[in-house]
Amino acid sequence: MVSGRNLKRVHFINRTLLGRQRKVVDMGTEDRNEYVDIGEDELLVQSKYMTETIEERNDLIRACAKLYKEAGGSVPALRVSAHQKLVEWPLRSPMPAQFTTLDAAQPWVLYWTANALTLTGSDLVDQEMQQRLVKKLEALFTSLGYAGGLHQLPNIACTYAAIETFVLCDSSPDAWSRINRVALYQFLLRLKEPEGGFRTVCPVGEVDARAMYTVLSVASLLQILTPDLAKGCADFLLGCQTYEGGFGACPGGDEAHGGYTFCAVAALAIIGALDRADTRALLDWCSARQKNEERGLSGRTNKLVDSCYSFWVGGTAAILEAYGYGECIDKDAMASYLLTCCQDTYGMRDKPGKPADFYHTNYALLGLAVTQYNFAAGETPADIECTPIGTPDICPINPVYGLPAKNVRSFVAHFRQA
């Protein structure tokens, strides 16, 4: 999708510099419901010089076209029970040896799976399950933050995933009171860098927008976001916005990326500095991530669509919508991609031809929630309001935190009173 003011420039680049044979189409708001229907054998993306990326996208477009044709113009229903079976499995059964690669991401597996179950209204994350989750998280807690596995260093990514999981434990007696806020605050302060950023782990972790968001998210949920933590954060994040409109990992030159863009935008919302960003360029960048043929969202320029970006980019769009900047993605098209092209036998997948997994199931369901609600800002980021569009399959979410809205409100209210 190309905004009107840049269309002539894009035509010049394509025709004169790149030698592209296919015309760029200006996709304004009025065109968003007009999908491109193509044949399975049609070569849609054409270029004088074919590249691996172009060939992969043509294959993906054909695969999506086949699924849309089989759907006969309708959008399949969400197969809730089938997807719940995938994400319930690691919470109920020992993980096989093939999953040792996730040994350093144990809090993330808990969050992805428990969150996906809660989003779909499952009663499987009951009090007994929540007590087990809390017990596991306590085993991963060090004298500072949470580690990815036993005998590992604590880091802010796994600490974030652990606190996200705690938020879901709303019916386990005293679960939230077992969080050591004093130790966590000291851990967050240790991660702070003089220029305003945070490290992912001491003393050698990365300093980037991801670390910034995870720190600010944890601090705001636990109500320990102090001026010392927030100092310099806005300037660091604003320096990550690129000429494209999205955000990169670090200030000064990184490529705009869907994951880092979400982290930066959500963090700016948390500290009340979103209005300092170039939101017009950001809206354009988010809109440009949606592909008219596949209908899904990609994470970077010239990359393939991926269901996880239905939240990383779609969640960014939801935050912008909540704060009054307008809508920048076609929600119906994105829902069509998720439900038609990304449902596997069990769980949600990245794209056709890929297997389902815990990560994509969680973020695809969060992305689906983005398409099923309208969002409006509340008094704080924890109070974002959701108005259903039709009859949703997913419970209302808070797009800043990637969690059910009611859990976020209850969790924050608990610590406001602590």
UniProtKB/TrEMBL annotation:
Keyword terms of this UniProt record: Metal-binding, Prenyltransferase, Repeat, Transferase, Zinc
Segments crossing the lipid bilayer: none
Segments forming domain Prenyltransferase alpha-alpha toroid: 79-401
Catalytic function, reaction form: L-cysteinyl-[protein] + (2E,6E)-farnesyl diphosphate = S-(2E,6E)-farnesyl-L-cysteinyl-[protein] + diphosphate
E.C. number(s) listed in UniProt: 2.5.1.58
GO biological process: prenylation; protein maturation
GO terms assigned for molecular function: protein farnesyltransferase activity; zinc ion binding
Name the UniProt record assigns to this protein: Protein farnesyltransferase subunit beta
Species: Eremothecium gossypii (strain ATCC 10895 / CBS 109.51 / FGSC 9923 / NRRL Y-1056) (Yeast)
